[in-house]
């Protein structure tokens, strides 16, 4: 389900592609990301759009929280910068993506979340497994 996103506007993931030609097909269930990096970008987009359904569907059951409550969270996700990746291609079983996600909190303060995320591929689908904070 698309929330607050015109399909012809730029995708929130920062690709400079239209949403319907970038993360939209993943979020709408038309296709699945073929790499861990593509899943990372689509999950950032889902956070930016407060699409809890997609986030839960792409979260490994081992680490998925029961409740996300994104609509209560006033964080506005602004920009995603991929810092690097390792493995995570279509035939790999695991992949890592390091990123910086820039946001505004509910008081309007700017912040950045830096993490190296672990993704696993099970039954042909990439899933977010866990993340380790990156310290400056």
TrEMBL record:
Residues 35-131 form the YchJ-like middle NTF2-like domain. InterPro entries: NTF2-like_dom_sf (IPR032710), SEC_C_motif (IPR004027), YchJ-like_M (IPR048469). It comes from the Bacteria. This is YchJ family protein.
